[in-house]
Structures are given as structure tokens and as C-alpha cells.
User: What shape does this take?
Amino acid sequence: MTIDIRDITFSYADETVLDDLNLAVPNGRITALVGPNGSGKSTLLHVISRILAPRTGIVLVDGRNIHQMRTREAARQLSILPQMPEAPDGLTVEDLVAYGRFAWQRPLMPLGQGDKDQIALAIELSGMTHLAKRRLSELSGGQRQRAWIAMALAQDSAVMLLDEPTTFLDIAHQFEVLSLLRKLNSENAKTIIVVLHDLNQAAAFSDDLVILKAGTILGYGPCEDVLTAEIISEAFGINVDFAIDPKTGRKIIIPRSVIA
Assistant: This one.
């Protein structure tokens, strides 16, 4: 599935947040959107997902304008996990994941066997089978995040969009969630677009980076090509050095000083 972002501009009142963006998202890869606070990362994700409508430009999914699709049709193409999602009190993991089938259910009809099979598969893929009957309120932060990812999986879309899925998680749970996304990409062919704050996490777990600043794209492409000292200093205002992870061969960013 191809996602083409063409001439996208978005504004809040008189403030331009995205400025004439053009981007082709690679199919079957993990693309991380990174940049300083206020750079437009989450806004871009929300435009792609139809949560926000651009002032100008279009988002094409397999050549079709996502903003002109019916809601259920769009949901079969893209699933989104927003920042800090909330669920009704008392909901179990299984209950939550079942919401992911809304795009495939007939109105007012109960879940069919196909829906139940997809829910069970999503729970299994996210490693939550043993917790399926547990209430969300009884889970750790990392477990809750995996439950939400399972709901997005149950939606059975080719593309998953995630807005800062590691926010407020400790380092172990961050690793757990990002490892799950990598597994879903490599073993289940999911195209994933994810907003991340941590450059080293983005470098370690994604294939491609989009580096934004003030609503424009400073760099886009494979991590090893885009992560340069020049682009990082322009985007974040810091000087950096690099090391190489001996196991993966990927770059590790080492901040040295803030640019005055």
C-alpha cells in the first residue's frame, strides 16, 4: 500500500504548522517522525489519519484521497493509536480489542466468528493472551500500551499510525513496545508510521526517518543517511557525535553541546 503526501499545508488560525509538505511513505517499513517540540510531527500524523483536514494538499492511499473515503473504508486502510488513549472504566483487554472490529462489522450486528478470530489473533500477536480477561486498570503501563496496539491490530489495516507510543513508559516498557512494533513489521508485514521523541530509539527501531522543524522536512530517508550532524544541529540546536552499535551497525547519537 502506498501513501503519498502531496503539498500538505495545515494551520491553526493564523499559525502555519505544516508548510507545503511532500512525502512518499515506503511500503512495508517503519517510518519514524522526529523533530523538536512544535515541529508538526503529531499534526502530520493526524492529517494522514483524517483526524485533521489539511488546508491545502491531499493524502493519497493507493492513489485515492483518504479524506474523501467513508469512515469505515478509511479505517480498513489505516489504524491509529493516539497519545494517551482513554477507555471506559472496567473494560477488559478483550473488550478493548473488540472495538478494533468496528470497520468490518455491520451496523447493530454482533461479532461474527471471523471478528472473534481476528480479535484472538491480535491479542496473541501482541503477547496479551494470558491477560485477555484482565481489566485495563489492573495492567502496567507497558501492558496497557500493548492492549491498545492489539486493538489497532484487530482493525486489520495494512498501515498502523502511532503517536508517541512510549510516552510516560519506563525504559523497559519502551523497549517492549518498540520491539513489538518491529516484530509486527517484520513478521506481519505491517507498514508503521510512528512519532517518537528519542532520536536513538528512532535510529534503533525504524527503517526511515522524517526529521521535521517548524512544519518543514529537513531530512527524509534511511536512518543512516538522514542522521547527520548537520541535520541534527539544524533541527534540534545541538552538536552531536556518533558511535556505532556493534551488534546492529546502527548509529548512536551522543549529544555534546547546545548551540548558542
